[in-house]
Amino acid sequence: MIRIVSFVLAAVLGLSLAGCGSEDKKSTGTPSTSSTPTAAPSTPDDPGVPVTRTEAQLTKALLELADLPSGFSVDKDEPVDGTKPFSSSNDRCAKLVKYLNATKAPGSKATAARTFTGGQEGPYIDYVLDSMGTAGEVGDLRESYAKAVDSCPKVSLKTKGAGSTSMKVEKITAPAYGTKPFAFRLTGTSGSKRGLEYTAAVTGVGDVLVSVSILAGQGTELEPATETAVTKVRHTLQIS
Question: Across residues 134-141, what is the average pLDDT?
Answer without folding.
Answer: 95
